[in-house]
Write a structure and sequence with these properties.
8-stranded antiparallel sheet; ATP binding; Gln_synth/guanido_kin_cat_dom; two-stranded antiparallel ribbon; EC 2.7.14.1; alpha+beta; transferase; about 15% strand
Amino acid sequence: MSIHRIINEAISPWMKQEGPDDDIVLSSRIRLARNFSSYLYPTLLSQDKAKEICHLVKHYFEGSTALPNAPFEYIEINKLEPVEKRVLIEKHLISPNLVESVHGACILSQNEQISIMINEEDHLRIQALYPGLQLREALTEANNIDNYIESQLEYAFDETIGYLTSCPTNVGTGLRASVMMHLPALVITKQFNRLIPTINQLGLVVRGIYGEGSEALGNIFQISNQITLGKSEEEIIEDLITIVQQLIKHEKSARDALVKTSLIRLEDRIYRSLGILKYGRIIETKESAVCLSDVQLGIDLGLITGLSKNFLNELMILTQPGILQQFVGNQLTPEERDIRRASLIREKLSSKNN
């Protein structure tokens, strides 16, 4: 494995796998925030100490065969080109905050299912990604990594409070569990906005495709926990799973209702979007996301055949600005990106039909 393969292959290996309820739940993610007891938090670290943490963590993963998904790749963020950083963000392997860190680094597993960010807001952000609704499996994977590190190095931990973190909202378990959900029918029927207050009241938050402060492109929403203190990891996970399962039921019900009461309008919407993707010459990010969402809904409902089940997941990644530029190998203006995006989508659709 090399950084060149990670950057140049837009689709992570784990994304090509199937998972439970993956027609609605695109992915499950577990992220654990951890700090070492003998170091200041990253915002207060000296450059030398920040480097020391990077080398320390690298030492325990470099050449290690004690963990699944080995080997691991160590990547220093400041050695990457701007477009390469953006690609890693668009693949959900690092956060925008890590890019801003002077001595940020990450460790990636071979299948890109495990990502360990170093010197982000906390010393470590341990992340596990799974296709479909697999939060329990992702938690087990993240805990295996967490236990391995903790067996080598001492964490900042309080017997009463739990794990100590830079941001008070992460204190306790340090756990952020989230699922990426495709909810087009709830959006089309204008039900989703009415559900958000209820979701928030249950201690969960709804965000866009790239987390806090990001936009919900293509009817894709990230649902995650807000509470990390006062509940166990298992309780947080089970609460989130319960809400996600309810959202799955609501989405399926809304899809059934659209088919029964508005089939012609629904087909018109879906096939218009397919036409734009097939024949459009200039497609902006937002427009492509909307059209891809419509076509994916058509695939899920059996109205469109011959396209892969993970059509949306694949093309939503491939058509992001950073990956487009990496794919072409040049810096592109916004208009050039929109032209290349349209061309890439046409190529992909043409290859599926051959």
